Amino acid sequence: MTMVILDTIDAPRRLWRRLGAWLHKRMPKGLYARALLILILPIVLLQSAVAYVYMQRHWEAITDRLSAAVARDTAAIVELYRSFPQDADHQILTRVAGVDLAIKLTIKPKAPLPPSTPRTFFSLLDRVLPRELERRLKYPFSIDTSNSHFVTIDVLLDDAVLEVVTTRTQAYASNSHIFFIWTTLASVVILAIAMTFLRNQVRPIQRLARAAEEFGKGRDAPFRPSGAREVRQAGAAFLEMKRRVERAIEQRTTMLNGVSHDLRTILTRFKLSLSLLDKTVETGELRKDVEEMENMLESYLAFARGDGGEAPAKTDVGAFLRDLQADTQKMGIEARLLVRGVPEVIVRPAALRRLLANLVGNAQRYGKRIDLTALNDGEMLTIHVDDDGPGIPVDRLEDAFRPFYRLDESRNQDNGNSGLGLAIARDIARSHGGEVALTRSPLGGLRATVTLPV
User: Fold this and answer.
1) Which contiguous run of DSSP H or E holds residue 427?
2) Per residue in 60-75, pLDDT tens?
């Protein structure tokens, strides 16, 4: 019993949730469209409801008066028929009905009345006209309102049946077309005004979003706060954040340049001292250690420096890939290149070259065949670097991007054992609004996929 009660209580909630989910899927996703919907829908509904109630009451009163007039005219015709029996051919009655009352009158022999048409719930005429006829006629009658232009009233008298035919507009005032015209025109006017004002309010938000997106891609887009007070505050906060980030990057670059200069000076002294020593096994090992230290230092500084403040420019990625293909072939490794579309993007050229060099160098180290692919679909430039090497286990693909992380000996992804090759590549891609992902290659090894917005 308790379960039945709980199910009965939860049923409306589930129905409401399903209705909410259905509406959520079909609601517009943009701020402009949603704001229009929030503003227009309640106003139009309220305006329609008010207009309908007002006009319905107004036309109900008019219909009452018109139907009452038709009932009075019908009652007058009946009284004239009963009061002038000497008018055997009914010329006077017919003339009065046709000329003065605009009613077509037909006098038929006495017979049972035809059935009245069924009354419909939404027909105002079917409710009002019978009521008014009952108030003014003392004889049985029937009404036919099935014709869209005329109303027929049959009145059963003692010796005849009077058929009264009048136009529908004499008894009923239709308001549906006026209501729809009024609602449509009012809705169009409200929509035009709302669209004009909302567009001006949404446009500064769109400019702010574009400026933030361009800044995230490393591009400098001119932006000046405008619009409503809250939007201007958000724009000013964005500009302040942008200045702080640029200042932090500038300070970091200055510090790294100083560190790089000092460490390179020490390494140069080491190399100079080793060159003055006799070539022995020990000095050879020291030279290798110094070279490895120099390579690791360059990797660390490149990772910490990031893009180094390089300015974005339109870059032909296909030229980079052709150079990497030629370098790979010089190493005796089979390399193929496929380019579809125009492989041009606005990026930092040196940073992108380093990104591709890291990925191709990783493939060169462990593969005997490399496939390079560049696809431009108009929105994104996708670059695939495939090799036939041993690959990386699926559960460790993301670990390969961790700085200083070492995979097993079968596949170590860095040049100088620094563990930064793929980390630098992903950092460069993300600074351009793109991404680097690793998957299984069709060649059996590793596939590195770079996506960059065009």
Assistant:
1) helix 421-431
2) 788 888 888 888 888 8
Take residue 361 and report the two structure tokens written for it: 């160098």
The residue to which tokens 């402009």 are assigned: 32
Predicted pLDDT at 414:
44
Spans in the chain with pLDDT lower than 50: 409-417
Domain positions in the chain are: 229-305, 313-453
> CA-CA-CA-CA torsion for 400, 405, 408, 410, nearest 10 degrees?
50
Domain 229-305 adopts which CATH fold? Helix Hairpins (1.10.287)
- Write out the two tokens for 39: 């503003």
Question: What pLDDT score was predicted for residue 382?
Answer: 94
Q: Which CATH class is domain 313-453?
A: alpha beta
181-191: burial string, b at 16+ Cβ within 10 Å, e else: ebbeeeeeeee
The 8-class DSSP code of residue 160 comes to E
Q: Write out pLDDT tens, residues 359-392.
A: 998 898 888 999 999 999 888 999 999 999 888 8
CA angle 440, 443, 445 (to 5 degrees): 50
Listed in sequence order, the residues at least 6 apart from 269 whose beta carbon sits closer than 8 Å to its beta carbon are none
Pairing assessment for the beta strands 334-340 and 369-376 based on DSSP bridges:
parallel
Beta bridge partners of 439: 447
Cβ neighbourhood burial of 358 (10 Å; 0-12, 13-18, 19+): buried
Place of tokens 């302040």: 240
**Farthest CA pair distance, the chain:** 154
